[in-house]
Amino acid sequence: MSEVRLSAETRTEFGKGGARRTRRAGKVPAVIYGHGADPRHVALPARELANAIRHGGANVLLTLDVEGGEELAIPKSIQRHPIKGYFEHVDLLAVRRGEKVTIDVPVAVVGDVAPGGLLNQEHTTISVEAEATHLPEAFEINVDGLAIGHQVTAADIALPSGSTLITDPDTVVVIIAEAPSAEQLEAEVAEAAGELGIVEDQPTEAAEAAASAEEPQPAEASAE
Asked: By CB atoms within 10 Å of each CB, which of 91, 129, 170, 216 scores lowest?
């Protein structure tokens, strides 16, 4: 896994106003929890933190230079701005080398689904326990060659040495289902529309009469 060193400054301002001033200074408000210690409020450089998570994943190991010492930590909760996407706040879990921690690891699906098949990914992460300095960044499930009806469970995912599966082994992560036919899709759309009370507009008698009036009428034969 990736390990990134960041400088961390102790925060003395709290609340929304203090957090806004921290972000305006190019830093991200963060809190370090763990090991029975009181939570510590720090500020992390926004650009460096974003790069660390972009390249190292959500479980990147951070070495924080804080108050003249070092602190190992991993992100546990990241709050982003809903529109602009920047980090608004980060909760960090303090860890030690050799310590086992439980994390949620992303699961990515690669490969091509069999013709006539439809990929259903039931879970995007699985939980594992691993040594704090050797946390897996992601797992891959290759669906090449998997037949329609095949299921991939958490137990089927190969874990690196030193990692232990915490998620229920029987948890279904991926299913190769049969793709619905056009008729089935139409029926599902119609059923959903009916549940929502949506019905197709039916021509009223007045509308039909108006349409008939607009149609050109055959000319009457003139009397000789």
From this structure: 216
Residue 47 phi/psi, 5-degree rounding, is -65, -45
Q: Answer whether 214's CB lies under 8 Å from 153's CB.
A: no
| Three-state SS sequence of the chain | CCEEEEECEECCCCHHHHHHHHHHCCEEEEEEECCCCCCEEEEEEHHHHHHHHHHHCCCCEEEEEECCEEEEEEEEEEEECCCCCCEEEEEEEEECCCCEEEEEEEEEEECCCCCCEEEEECCCEEEEEEECCCCCCCEEEECCCCCCCCEEEHHHCCCCCCCEECCCCCCEEEEEEECCCHHHHHHHHHHHHHHCCCCCCCCCHHHHHHHHHHCCCCCCCCCC
d(Cα 147, Cα 211) in Å, to the nearest integer?
54
Angle among Cα 41, 45, 49 to the nearest 5 degrees reads 100
- On average, the pLDDT of the chain sits at 86
User: Dihedral angle at the C-alpha atoms of 22, 33, 89, 140, nearest 10 degrees?
Assistant: 140
User: Bigger pLDDT: 68 or 38?
Assistant: 38
The pLDDT score that the predictor gives to residue 202 is 54
Please tell me the distance from the alpha carbon of residue 215 to that of residue 132, in angstroms, as a whole number. 79
Q: Considering only CA atoms, which of 105, 169, 173, 166 is closest in space to residue 142?
A: 173
Within 10 angstroms of residue 49's Cβ, the number of other Cβ atoms is 22
